[in-house]
Amino acid sequence: MQSHFEAAVGHRTRTYNGVMFDQTYGALWCDVRPSGALELELGVDLGDRLDVANTRNGTVVGIGPEVTWRAGRHLNLAASYEYQTLDVDGGRLYTARLTQLRAVWQFSLRTFLRVITQYADVGRDPSLYLEEVNASEEELFNQVLFSYKINPQTVFFVGYSDTAMGLDDGVESVDLTTASRTVFVKLGYAWLP
Description:
This protein is mostly beta strands and 193 residues long. 0% of the residues lie in helices and 78% in strands.
């Protein structure tokens, strides 16, 4: 099943803002291909992690599964999810979740269409931060990209993207609201003198 497993455990000393931290950490990564069309991945991150916003040690737990499916000669679909928490003295500093969906249709060797959607959701305990932060923030990003390779040195791109944001500062909350929209055209080429 073309499997690959990796594990790491270690201890390190890090210095940040003039403060020295002793950290113990561990990570696990595995990748399995049950068929030529399907790939499953999982990453796990555990141990001590630096809270750079407040210059202190914390304990991280992170899990990141991903699925890639080659659904025929032209279509490639992928879904991934990242979940991470950081605990410090006093409680949970934050919980972060990131979801991404990606689809690529390869028309030919020269042409493809790609669609990406990402959703991020971060919840925080503002009482554990030295600076003022929002209790929660969310962001939704979408992108559509068409690419045509004119020759090996020249590529033409046409695309659209938008971003929506929402937040809760503990007093007032704002639902996901479109913050930006972009339509773009790009011509990339290699200059050979």
